Amino acid sequence: MPQGRRGGPARPMPVSGPAAQAQAAPAARRARAPRAPFLLLVVGLLCGGLVSLLLLNAVLAKDSFRANGLRKEISGLRIEKEAKQSENMRREMPDAVAKNNEYQGLGPDWDTARVITPDKPASRAASDGQTPAGQERVPGTGQ
Q1: Which of 27, 110, 141, 143 is paired with 89 by a 20 to 30 Å CA distance?
Q2: pLDDT class for 41, splitting at 50, 70, 90?
């Protein structure tokens, strides 16, 4: 006998006939029984994974719809803001102010109108007669 092999029980030779079929049937049933729990486990895991993916997809889709709705709302608010700014700018224009004054019964006061002539300054600047910033006199230092 070679060194790498060990002797073991001898395997019986298959027998053909009715006795062989009677022995093969219980053996086939015993061989299939362990497969059923494994298959149920695999199918259960696959179904659980599928359900969890569907739930995750639904949650993400819900957040996506909410984000899309908020984007549309922000866009609408921006358009409304621009329209209000445009309306305010239109109402502040001199022509619109004059028309609004006439509507309220106000008009220019021609009796107290001031005429500006080029040789005489219209008003005195606020900084006339003041020292520049940083050059003020500090008392007690002689500067």
Answers
A1: 110
A2: very high
Q: Which residues contact 116 (CB under 8 A, 6 or more apart)?
A: 122
Please give, one letter per residue, the 3-state secondary structure of the chain. Answer: CCCCCCCCCCCCCCCCCHHHHHHHHHHHHHHHCCHHHHHHHHHHHHHHHHHHHHHHHHHHHHHHHHHHHHHHHHHHHHHHHHHHHHHHHHHCCHHHHHHHHHHCCCCCCHHHCCCCCCCCCCCCCCCCCCCCCCCCCCCCCCC
Which residue type occupies 114?
A: R
Query: For 110, which DSSP code?
Result: G
Q: How far is CA 9 from CA 24, 105, 141, in A?
A: 20, 124, 121
